[in-house]
UniProtKB/TrEMBL annotation:
Family, similarity comment: Belongs to the site-specific recombinase resolvase family.
Record's protein name: DNA invertase Pin-like site-specific DNA recombinase
Domain of life: Bacteria
Domain Resolvase/invertase-type recombinase catalytic per the UniProt entry, residue ranges: 13-149
Amino acid sequence: MNTKAATPTQTGALVGLARVSTDDQDLQLQLDALTAAGCIRIFDEKVSTRKKDRPGLAAALDYLRPGDTLVVWKLDRLGRSTKDVLIIAEDLHDQGIGLKILTGRLAGNYSPTGEGKFFFTMMAAFAELERDIIRERTIAGVQAARDRGQRLGRPPAMTPEQVEHARTLLTNPKNTVSSIARLLNVSRATIYKYVPELTQAPAAAAEELTA
């Protein structure tokens, strides 16, 4: 569906807002897109929208002036819930500031008034609904896998066969934990984890443990 929202008259500057939820995520994709869109200033933040304190958004709102347009890469960079997004959008409108979304189904310019407000509300609601559906499908998929007896999460570092092989090799005093770890392509720590009796072994394996 390609629904056009009312487009505000832009008389001022484009100001960008980039956000990721954790320090492990990279802002560069958003920064590049916002720069290419013509933003003269970009504010960024690394914080979950579930937290009330959003310094990047607060700084952007303080910087924006009537006639300016706030630009985000995608709607979920502005807020995670329909309520939050609409509160921010209403605040922008009250100040005479437009909103532009660069990517996703909701890409375009929005003015949260009249027809534009109606479509913006519906689209924000659809975006939240889509997140909920994805989350429910993920939960259902995990439960179905458990019901089938599938092991979830990371696979074990050593299979039962490798553990047994390691124990057999360790019966030979010429074999060390390091040499067996190299043979099985695992770390010494992994050997000790899966063969815990080594902590009491008095032979070469024990010597390596205390080395």
